[in-house]
Amino acid sequence: MIYLDSAATTLQKPPSVVRAASYAINHMASPGRGGYGPAMQAAEVVFACRQEAAELFHVEDPEQVILTSNATHGLNIAIKSLVKPGDTVLISSFEHNAVTRPLYALGAQIRVAASPLFQPEAMLEAFAAKLTPEVRCVVCTHVSNVFGYILPLSEIAALCRSREVPLIVDASQSAGCLPVHLKELGAAFIAMPGHKGLYGPQGTGLLLCAGETVPLLEGGTGSRSAEQDMPDFLPDRLEAGTHNVPGAAGLLAGLRFVKAKGLERILEGERSLTLQAARGLSSLPGVTVYAASDPACQAGVLSFRLDGMDCEVAGEALGERDIAVRAGLHCAPLAHKAAGTFETGTIRASFSAFNYPAEAGRLVWEVTRLARRR
Amino acid sequence: MVYYLIICRSLTYAQRTAAALERAGITAHILRAPKVVDQAGCSHAVKVSERRLADALLVLGRVGLSPKRIYVMSSDGSYKEVLL
Fold it and tell me: What is residue A88's three-state secondary structure?
């Protein structure tokens, strides 16, 4: 199978990730719950994972790195730490439901900085216009999970800093292929999955914290056990219950893989495959491709659709031809509305460090066959 | 053998403390804090030898990890808090 759904989760993992997770299952117990070997070995791995992440994402202190189950978990902690019912929150028009649903559930006043696809200057202008004094918090994705559009995050972060409004970043599609710098951005929180561009196992994620936090879960932390309040220090405050140690061990190996390969090399590889596929698909009659004219705005995610063919039907047909893509709204209806694809949805191909030009070529060839069949 | 226990608020804090000491060449061992010195229940401690405590305090002060509480284990096995 040609796997082109890495924006959902990377299927091909470095062998070191599989080995590390497997070793942890067989040899490691629960960190912080005992002084015996397997518990301490687990503690070392979890701490190493925090340290590696702190280094990669420029976090001052490994205690600010929280292990979560996924990016959605991290975003929920971040949003529920900063936003109260009725607060006005400014978001981009490319946010995922992982951002909009918690805001909706909280009863926040959601304000959208809307701008067309692949127009970073217009996006920045929209943020500047809508970031008024009543805005309590800004939430912004770094890269659209539907279109691979790289938003002007540094500039949006600078705007937030200048207006003293806390920023939450959704780095779900950028962690592992673009620089993500907690200190430089001055963000309050950055949430990311461990199982996408960081090549960790599913069930892993990271939340980088610089702001005040409110626990999403209460429970045992292996610290201050005589007290009923959650600890007031990180990471314990946000990590109730037993850790996903095999996940952390795998994520540590994934972080080391990304570090060794280099963000720039990973991005260039994914971008090159995306542009190759975009060029090939654009040449086909009746195929609409949503790609950036400026490659600097494009990460390794590409959306397209076939005129006269339901996107889900096309996705199924590609699956039958051993090409794994994702079709539909990709849990991001707002992004589809911004791009004018809400009614039709799109087919999404997303690349990882384990894809090759021949695979992008095969995608184009199979879509060519599908387009002929209509 | 007499040794000191640097009491830490969390396992992660203890790991940061031990890592800073090890980087400076000071042997540091993480353990669960004995119940008698553990006021809040379930905390961790970093154990350093008697002769390295002064160096350890210097190192930890430099990296912003100054301890809040330290205990010395006396030869009779009891723990006494060290006034910082």
Answer: strand
